[in-house]
Model the fold of this input.
Amino acid sequence: FRESNSLRAAKIRAARKWKFCRNAIFSMLSVPVHGLGTMAVDKYWRLYYDPEFVEETPEPVLATVILHELLHLLNKHHRRLEEQERQDIKAWNIAADYSINEMLYDEMLSYRSDARCPEFKNSKDACVITDDFIQRWTGPYQIYKTASTESHYRQIVKEREEENAEGSNNQQANSREIREGGEGDQREDRGTEGSNEQPDGL
Done:
């Protein structure tokens, strides 16, 4: 297997940006996965990537994606999830991405995701983070840059549980109202049985 030129170039750019991580960047084993739509890593330092995503993403942005995935590994996010009492992979990934992307956002050039990314021809190590990197939690929880991934995770799980409980309570209340309404109709039907009187029409 041979890496595509686009992926190799993005790795080189990322290594120029973070020279102290050069060895770590090239230690990730690239594994193509068609249809993945992005990049991902596992705890064994395999970097999964969608070839189409690699070819369509501007090199300065792709380099930042590589650094994003690298930070999951350097921060041991896979192992830290395994240490949690309750393992909600989706919530953990959101929490981990908060920690990583806020860090990258402070250091990289930022650019709107709906705008054309400049080529940065005058700088071989320029890396760009687009707005769609910065995920925003929709709940009331305030994200603090100094908070740990575990802190984000616990709060996100708590808010999800509260939202689910509220939704369940509302559903139960609606079911009870429907059931009570049906019982009332049945009582009215029983009250008219055996009577020659016709109910008033509307």
